[in-house]
Amino acid sequence: MIGEIDIFGVFVPAVLVLMLIAYLVNLAIRTVLARVGFYRFVWHRSIFDLGIYVLVLGLVVVVSHRLIT
């Protein structure tokens, strides 16, 4: 994995870009779960959302690593 990404002359850490992608995917997942009514079965929504974000971030990192190599 490369350490930095050049966006219009500004070097941004690759992890920051991956975190942004994971956040957008997480936002879509949270919206779907809220519309379905899944959060009625969740004890602590904030902790659950954090767990989903960590899982999505790990998935995004693994996928990006496999695409680069």
TrEMBL record:
Keywords: Cell membrane, Membrane, Transmembrane, Transmembrane helix. InterPro entries: DUF1656. The chain crosses the membrane at residues 6-29, 50-68. This is DUF1656 domain-containing protein. It comes from Paraburkholderia xenovorans (strain LB400).
